[in-house]
Design a protein that fits this description.
Elements: E1 2-5, H1 11-22, E2 27-29, E3 38-45, H2 52-56, E4 60-68, E5 70-72, E6 81-84, H3 92-102, E7 104-108, E8 117-118, E9 121-122, H4 123-128, E10 138-149, E11 156-163, H5 169-179, E12 184-194, E13 197-198, H6 205-213
EC number: 5.4.99.25
Family: Belongs to the pseudouridine synthase TruB family.
Protein name: tRNA pseudouridine(55) synthase
Length: about 220
């Protein structure tokens, strides 16, 4: 089943709501969406949960906004700005050059606030307790990466990226800010696609809820 996530709904929230709706214990998603993110979430129900790993390995497409010159502890807009750096010096040519350096296979360090488990505990749980762990960089692939400056606010960069499994867009944003001699954090994120599945063709949860309730399936 393919449904979109909602702003402030975690992937766990969606699975829980769907589990109660269809009255099936086995419900799993094929790729975590951050709480601030919207867009596509593939959810497998019942025997289809065996397909989760297959879906997780598919190429993913995202779009959103980076904000230059400001950094947060979570690398997104879910926490206050804790660092400010000059950004006015960054030219369009600098952005174009930096974008090219991120295409292809690159090494990326996941954010502390992530669902990765270390010692049986989620990283975000450790981060909330003030623990700091240095994670090893992971090799990922950026197949497509395009950025343009916002016409309304030149501090904002509008991006579109197609990437491999395991890519953290928050990390991409933070690393991109550093590459420009500044800092950055993610202020908007939407998952547009997973493999051949598009957010444009997905069910809105309310539509799905109505269809299941009225036994349209």
């Amino acid at each position: 089943m393919v449904i979109p996530g909602f702003d402030r709904w975690t992937s766990f929230t969606v699975c829980g709501k769907l589990r109660r709706l269809v009255k099936v214990k086995k419900v799993g998603h094929a790729g975590t969406l951050d709480p601030m993110a919207t867009g596509l979430l593939i959810v497998c129900v019942g025997k289809a949960t065996k397909l989760v790993e297959r879906y997780q390995g598919l190429v993913k497409g995202y779009s959103g906004v980076f904000r230059l010159g400001e950094a947060t502890s979570t690398w997104d807009a879910d926490s206050p700005v804790i660092q400010r750096e000059p950004w006015e010096h960054i030219k369009d040519a600098d952005i174009k050059k930096a974008v090219a350096s991120f295409r292809g296979e690159i090494w990326q360090v996941p954010p502390m606030f992530s669902a990765i488990k270390v010692g049986g505990e989620r990283m975000y749980e450790k981060a909330r307790k003030g623990e700091s762990i240095e994670l090893a960089p992971r090799k990922i692939s950026i197949f497509q990466f395009d950025i343009e400056r916002s016409l309304e606010d030149r501090q904002n960069l509008i991006f579109r990226v197609t990437c491999s499994k395991g890519t953290y867009i928050r990390s991409l944003c933070a690393d991109f800010g550093k590459a420009l001699g500044s800092c950055a954090h993610l202020i908007a994120l939407r998952r547009d696609s997973i493999g051949e599945y598009s957010a444009e063709d997905a069910w809105e949860f309310k539509e799905l809820e109505e269809a299941i309730t009225k036994n349209y399936f």
